[in-house]
Amino acid sequence: MNEQISIRNKNCLDGLKTLATGSIDAVITDPPYFCGMTHNGTKGTYSDLNLVEPFFKAVFTEFKRVLKPNGELYVFCDWRTYPFFYPILEQIFTIRNRITWDKKSGAGCYYSFCHEDIIFCTNPSPVYNRYKKGLNIWRIPAFSSGAKKTNGEKIHPTQKPIELMEKLVASATEENETVLDCFVGSGTTALACKKLNRKFIGYEIQSNYYEIAIKRLEL
Q1: Taking Cα atoms as reference points, which of 97, 101, 99 lies closest to residue 116?
Q2: pLDDT tens string 43-66
Q3: Where are the beta strands (DSSP E) in 78-183?
Q4: Ranges of each domain in the chain
Q5: What percent of the chain has pLDDT over 70?
Q6: InterPro entries from the entry (predicted)?
Q7: How is domain 5-217 classified at the architecture level of CATH?
């Protein structure tokens, strides 16, 4: 790892416990959409939501601890996970808004699904004063369904386009501030931080995606 970017192949709860209280400027994270997750954050399906609730309560509580008083949290979700994450986050954070990512694409036979949501939260602190400009609908094309797994194209089932993550990182932080992601995946958020001169701390429990992220970031 270098001084700016740190990614560890470990369970995110174990990693979070090593971080100092109030040391993170923003958490930007895309929790597994249950295409590979169990009660401990590794494997399962959408029907396992009730099993993973304690896990996410513990993770989000740690997010609150490590965030600075004016820190921000952005959690990606889809129409199935939004009603699961929202009430948990509402117990711990102040929910400021919902950002809608319009992907301009979709696949499936029951009306093409062409957007995802990002729940925007802050610590429940009176010192928060980072007012946001712009609209809460972001129109950025997603990967096509036929994207190959090479040359920077889609290499993870929920991989986000670099343009989206750069916009989010730039909105959430200033240069040299620190971003945390506990579900690194293929490392797109880390790559955006590297390009925009932000510090990054991340954890990825699956060794294959950890190796992909390390390779993409040339760490």
Answers
A1: 101
A2: 455 556 677 889 999 999 999 999
A3: 94-102, 115-122, 137-139, 178-181
A4: 5-217
A5: 76
A6: DNA_methylase_N4/N6 (IPR002941), DNA_methylase_N6_adenine_CS (IPR002052), RM_Methyltransferase (IPR001091), SAM-dependent_MTases_sf (IPR029063)
A7: 3-Layer(aba) Sandwich (3.40)
